[in-house]
Amino acid sequence: MSEHFMLDGAAVAFAPGQTVMQAAHAAGHYIPHLCWSPELAPHGSCRLCTVSIGGQLAAACTTPAAAGLEVESRSAELTERRRALLQLLFVEGNHFCPACEKSGNCTLQATAYEMGMLAPHFDHFFPDRQVDASHPDVLIDFNRCILCELCVRASRDLDGKDVFAVAGRGLQSHLLVNGASGRLADTAFSASDRAAGICPVGAIVRKRVGFAQPIGHREYDRHRIGDAPGEAAGEAAGEAPRDPTWSTAR
Ligand code: FES
Fold this sequence. Notes:
Strand content: 5-15%
Bound molecules: FE2/S2 (inorganic) cluster
Number of domains: 3
Helix content: 10-25%
Radius of gyration: 18 Å
CATH class of the largest domain: Alpha Beta
Number of strands: 10
CATH topology of the largest domain: Alpha-Beta Plaits
Number of helices: 7
Shape: globular
CATH architecture of the largest domain: 2-Layer Sandwich
Distance between the termini: 42 Å
């Protein structure tokens, strides 16, 4: 048998160089994540993927897989931690799902449902950031950006354009458009770029198609995020059910 580690009691095989997240994803196990994409190098910034490895907390997306690891990704404590991170993200930006065209296709929203988050808990920041509608096909609402940098990395590493960057520190951190004017229309950005379709929230959206797919028929209206094809396939195939705290309403 190839080398493996244990994830929530199940053996997960891995190839040399893979992270815990990569191996888990390849094996059909869902570990919550926002800033990770199988197409990009890990960023390790959102911490949604925090797991317990031998009793120590670690980011699954940046931790190398190793034989013999005992990884726990589902527990009441981890769910509580993830819910708190999500609540912080929800109040830091303008994430008002009923008014957002990304509702039902939003990874942040779907993950919040998965973690049983029903209220933001903290006080809203109500940021007042610019909206960039300059591009003919794509709109950026900076108020919804969660600074996952998926667009930054996709534009740089997949599109070869380097259209986006994150500037500032702490609460002043913000996404910006590279270019003299700072406007998307004045870059080489295209609606067919990978960076145009990788935003996990409603910060980068295509124009004129916002409600082409009706509410109720969208990706996460049809299935839970952990049950997406290639995500929790193991559970669908008859593995032990999720930790009962996984979707405990709070
Ligand atoms: Fe691992 Fe964001 S997915 S830190």
